[in-house]
Each structure stands twice: as structure tokens, then as C-alpha cells.
Amino acid sequence: MEYKNNKNRIDGLIRFAIAITALNIIGQLFLGFEHSFLHLIVAWLSAYVLEMTMETVSSKFENRKPLFSGSLRNLIIFLLPGHIASTAICMLVFTNTDLRYIVFGVAVTILSKYIFKVRINGNMRHFLNPSNTGISSLFLLFPGQVGSIPPYQYTENLWGYGDILLCLFFIALGSYINLKYTKRMPVVLAWIAGFILQTVIRTSLADTATVSSLLIMTGPAFLLFSFYMVEDPGTTPYKVKHQIIFGLTVALIYGLLMYIHIPFNMFFALVATCCLRGIILFIKSLNDKRNTVLLTSGTL
Description:
Elements: H1 6-31, H2 37-61, H3 72-92, E1 93-94, H4 100-115, E2 117-120, E3 123-126, H5 130-141, E4 147-148, H6 162-182, H7 185-206, H8 210-214, H9 220-228, H10 240-259, H11 265-297
Antiparallel strand pairs: 1-4, 2-3
Helix pairs in contact: 1-3, 1-6, 2-3, 2-4, 3-4, 3-5, 4-5, 5-11, 6-9, 7-10, 10-11
């Protein structure tokens, strides 16, 4: 199961949604975020419409009520994941003034949840990290039109110790959410430890500066990826040992991509890791189904 307590999931989603929305508002007003409020509005509306459309279609095929029906509370909770994912795309992808790429990234994000699914503990669940999949699709398909956010975006208008305090805030809030609500802190720590290890090995083999390569860890983009994206509870394992393997795998693939000079390697490494996990879960579901058939037939 992905959550022992559904209340933890909802509480975590609410706090995460509030935090990422507040960060974008503050970012627009004070920090120097490059995307506009129009980018956010377009991203949110695209996510809401697609989420509700796909859920309506899915519920008709499965002969059930849509998850957002029944009350305004159900609707809000249902839209929270799409809200968070679409906001993340605006924060981490630079599309200049072209809003079409925002819509495309959000569309891939939402559709991936309904298309790329595998059976986990008897239930069909998506295995690709939604926002990361949308971001990776933009980098892969439109490398000349979109790019990663400028490194100065989060701290352009800060001075003194402001940039340090902002990074500490990202770490503190992310740690709190992952420890108390998502229970995915092992993924974060394994990814960070693996990142350090692969950096030391990679720079030693390539005879490049290790310290300079590690400095990326002090930037807001790395911290946001580490504490708010790589540990997505819907697409990472629940057991601690499996979380550690997942985080280390992302770091390993990142190191390999970095070694062969593939750009946007963090996002591609996470996509690859999610795909590997999806393949493993698919094979496991086939074996479980085969064993069930054999057991039912009396062969086992």
C-alpha cells in the first residue's frame, strides 16, 4: 500500500499545495520568478480540465461515480495532485512567453497517470512520476524551445543571507512533509547519498573537480527536486529498503547520464527509474496472476 493512513495523504497534499502555491506567489512578487501569473493560470486550468475529463471517462468505463463528485471537498482534494504537478512544471521549465509548451507539459503529466498503469497489490496504479514525466517530455521533444529555469530565479532579489535562509526553508519544509506525511524520507536521503557517491566516483574517473560538481547541491533547483519531486509518494515504494534502492538507482542513472554528457539528467534519471520500477511491478503482477491461476486450478 502507498499510504498506511489516507488522512496522512490528504493532509500532506493540502500542505504541499498551499506551500507550492505560496512559493509561486511570493516568487512572482519578490524573488524574481521568470514565469508569469498567466503561466500559472493556464497550467492550473489545463490540469483541472484534463483531470476531470479523464476521471469522468474512466469512471464511466469502470461503472462508478467520479472521485470528485459528491461535495466541494471531494473536488478540491481530487484536483490537488494536478494543481501541484502543473505548478511544478511552471517552476522548473522555462518556456519564455509561449504558453503552448506549458499546456503540452501539463497534458503529458495528467495523461501519464491514466495511461501508464500497473497492478500494485490488486489495484491499478500509475508508476511514472507525473510532473517529472511532463517536464522530461518537454526537454526531450522541444530542446530548442524550452529549457530549465535560470539558476538565479529563486534568489535574484535576495541579499545577504537571504539565499541561504531560503534553501534552509526548502530543506526544513520538505523534511517535515516527508517525515510526517509522505513517509518518503529514505528516498530523499538515499538519492542525496547516492548523488554524493556517484559524484566522487565520476569526477575521479573523469579527472574533474569534485567539489565544484557537488556545489549543485546548494542550489534551490536541486533541493526542490530532492525534497519535493524524487520522493513522490504515488510513484515510489512504501517499504524502507525499497525506497533506498529507488533513491540509489536514480543517483546511479544520473551519474551515467552525466558521464556521457546527457543534459537534463536528473529528470531523465527519475523517468528511467520509474520505468524500471514499472517493469518490475508488471512482471510481479504477471507472476502473481499465474500463481493465482495455478492455485485455483489445484496445481499448486
